[in-house]
């Protein structure tokens, strides 16, 4: 992913680089530059130099694409592993065969353009957290009220002051200047050393007044550690309100094209019929065009999808002709749209970037010479 030149200010004043997909669009849109880009990446992946990519050689590309989509690492979630598998299938067309450079270029172009379209609709802001925003929060007028509220929400009546401080850090967000403490690197290198500096002062029972005083001391230590070891966070906010689905359903040409492309990737029996078992896979293929996240990526959205499936008749005849399959899939999309229009789902995510932005993805980050 690429950063747009310029910056954005969040409500607490923190500046961040905007990742909106514009550089990806420029890369793919310039035939010569993109061809050179593909040549370099293909050569990097083609370890045995046979001019084709095996499934094993494609794995780093699939992993980078997953990272670009914001997915957790392979092997950590069955749902995300399913998406990784589908990305690999996109390259191999579902066959255990090697991929030529032309096939690699075509699929990579489609994937990158899809990512760019998603980033254009829902940009990501890259925040460099150096402690300034946390210091501003701790010294600001809202500190006591917000932290008192957090203290009252912590359900650990017999917990020590240390337990309450750790829990409170987990409840703060980038808006207060705290990177996600659920990230093990952040906790081990930023929060835990700050707790250690507090020493036995945190071993006493938790009381609100003591909590407010001791948390502030630990927060000052966290500020110092953030100054020494700044943390880069990819922040995104998105609201799924059904408008993307509505746009797709209202454009018959675009809807037919999207459904036909999805069905091309689904197996059919000798009579040309498709199993309804592939409806979820088809929905996953259509989701980018409908402004929806991948199936399995957001729990709240998965519940909406389950309800949409209940609204349509998918239990009887297992295999149907293409037109019937498309009709059922369209009805599912309509059910999703109606639910989201009535109850939009807002999602905010923060992911720690552990490598320098310029080298975090060997596949998705062209070198300066390639984009010059």
TrEMBL record:
Residues 33-68, 300-335 form the EF-hand domain. SMART domains: EFh. Pfam families: EF-hand_7. It comes from the Eukaryota. One of its GO terms (molecular function) is calcium ion binding. The keyword Iron does not apply. The keyword Calcium applies. Keywords: Calcium. PANTHER family: CALCIUM-BINDING EF-HAND FAMILY PROTEIN-RELATED, EF-HAND DOMAIN-CONTAINING PROTEIN. This is EF-hand domain-containing protein.
């Amino acid at each position: 992913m690429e950063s747009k030149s310029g910056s954005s200010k969040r409500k607490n004043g923190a500046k961040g680089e905007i990742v909106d997909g514009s550089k990806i669009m420029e890369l793919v849109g310039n035939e010569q530059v993109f061809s050179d880009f593909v040549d370099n990446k293909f050569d990097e992946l083609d370890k045995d130099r046979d001019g084709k990519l095996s499934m094993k050689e494609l794995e780093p590309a699939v992993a980078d694409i997953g990272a670009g989509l914001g997915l957790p690492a392979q092997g950590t979630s069955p749902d995300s592993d399913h998406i990784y598998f589908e990305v690999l299938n996109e390259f191999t067309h579902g066959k255990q065969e090697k991929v030529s450079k032309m096939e690699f270029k075509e699929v990579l172009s489609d994937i990158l353009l899809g990512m760019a379209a998603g980033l254009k609709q829902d940009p990501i802001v890259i925040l460099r957290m150096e402690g300034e925003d946390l210091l501003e929060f701790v010294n600001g007028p809202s500190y006591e009220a917000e932290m008192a509220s957090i203290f009252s929400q912590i359900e650990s009546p017999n917990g020590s002051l240390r337990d309450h401080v750790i829990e409170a850090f987990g409840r703060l967000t980038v808006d207060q200047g705290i990177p996600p403490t659920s990230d093990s690197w952040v906790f081990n290198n930023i929060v835990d050393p700050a707790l250690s500096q507090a020493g036995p002062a945190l071993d006493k029972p938790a009381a609100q007044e003591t909590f407010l005083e001791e948390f502030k001391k630990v927060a000052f230590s966290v500020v110092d550690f953030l100054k020494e070891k700044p943390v880069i966070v990819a922040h995104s906010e998105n609201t799924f309100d059904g408008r993307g689905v509505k746009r797709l359903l209202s454009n018959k040409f675009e809807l037919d094209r999207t459904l036909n492309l999805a069905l091309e990737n689904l197996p059919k029996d000798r009579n040309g019929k498709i199993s309804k078992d592939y409806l979820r896979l088809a929905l996953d293929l259509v989701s980018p065009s409908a402004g929806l996240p991948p199936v399995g990526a957001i729990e709240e959205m998965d519940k909406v999808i389950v309800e949409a499936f209940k609204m349509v008749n998918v239990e009887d005849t297992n295999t149907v002709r293409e037109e019937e399959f498309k009709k059922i899939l369209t009805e599912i999309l309509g059910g999703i749209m109606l639910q989201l229009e009535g109850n939009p789902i807002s999602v905010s995510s923060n992911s720690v970037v552990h490598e320098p932005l310029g080298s975090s993805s060997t596949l998705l980050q062209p070198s300066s010479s390639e984009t010059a």
